Amino acid sequence: MGRFGVTEILVILAVVLLLFGGKKIPELMKGLGSGIKEFKNAAKDEQTTAKKEETPE
């Protein structure tokens, strides 16, 4: 139950296509991309804050 093969990925994509339809998928991917971008920015800000706290002034 560790890795996904090509068949499993194709089945998942087919189910997503059936559930959301072709018109909604670009909107979902755009939202997912912006969410990932926001998460990366928050993680980067947290690292910057942690480094500032470590260095003595």
Helices and strands in order:
Layout (H helix, E strand, L loop, with lengths): L5 H49 L3
Helices and strands, in order, run as H
N/C terminus separation: 50 Å
In quaternary terms, these chains amount to: single chain
Shape: elongated
**What average pLDDT do the residues reach?**
85
Structural class determined from secondary elements: mainly alpha
The number of E-state strands comes to 0
Figure out the total of helices.
1
As residue ranges, the low-confidence spans are none
* Beta-strand content bin: under 5%
Helix percentage range? over 70%
Tell me about the largest β-sheet. Answer: none
Query: Could you tell me the radius of gyration in angstroms?
Result: 19 Å
